[in-house]
Design goal:
It is found in: Endomembrane system. Belongs to the CDP-alcohol phosphatidyltransferase class-I family. The protein is mainly α. About 70% of the residues lie in helices and about 0% in strands. The chain has 8 helices and 2 strands. It has a two-stranded antiparallel ribbon with strand order 1-2. The mean pLDDT is about 85.
Length: about 250
Amino acid sequence: MDENQAPRKTRRGIYLLPNLFTTAALFAGFYAVLSATQGRFEAAAIAILSAQILDGFDGRIARLTNTQSAFGAEYDSLSDMVAFGVAPALVAYHWALGELGKVGWLAAFIFTAAAALRLARFNTQVGTSDKRYFQGLASPPAAAIIAMGIWTAHDLGIEGQDVSWLAAFVTAGAGLLMVSNFRYLSFKQFNLQGRVPFLLAVVVMLGFAVVYLYPPLVLFLMALTYAISGPAWTLFRLRRNRVHRRREPAA
């Protein structure tokens, strides 16, 4: 290169495609809050569900198109905080927790603060933690417990004021699970690009059919089962270790 030739400047910018999905997820979370303030709780729950679907796409698209970036990772975390931290807490507050006064807003704040701590811990452990597992309940399924629970109750004609204490317990409990040390399967080891057994395709098809029967209740039960799997697996391992130690011969 000619010594007098100026070096090329690095082009600055962001990757558009994955960040479009992140922006859409952010908008869905924002729309959920607006819907809740207007008393449209079913629309708010569906908006949070839409944010979950969009959030599942942005990272995968970035990896498939080789458009991963530090900006995208930070933007995704901020979007998750709004869609899965602030929005579910405010939707729950407008639906039921507001009836409890200080207890209600405290339960909502516990969920929001836990989501922020969960995301901060996850970001600091990237590259060092076992990718097969999450430490603590991830924020999307925690948000699903609240959103799908509200959708189910609304569909069954249950008013938030009638189950306000239960809503507070579920909201705060989901928040505490996010900052717990329970391990949850991340399902990141599944390769969606590779070949899979035909039986798995049949199972996926049946899964969609079951969800279609009653979407809010089925999705709520799925999210609740996943949330319980962490403590249940931990208790199972502790019990197995105790039995194993008892069977070991004394030295």
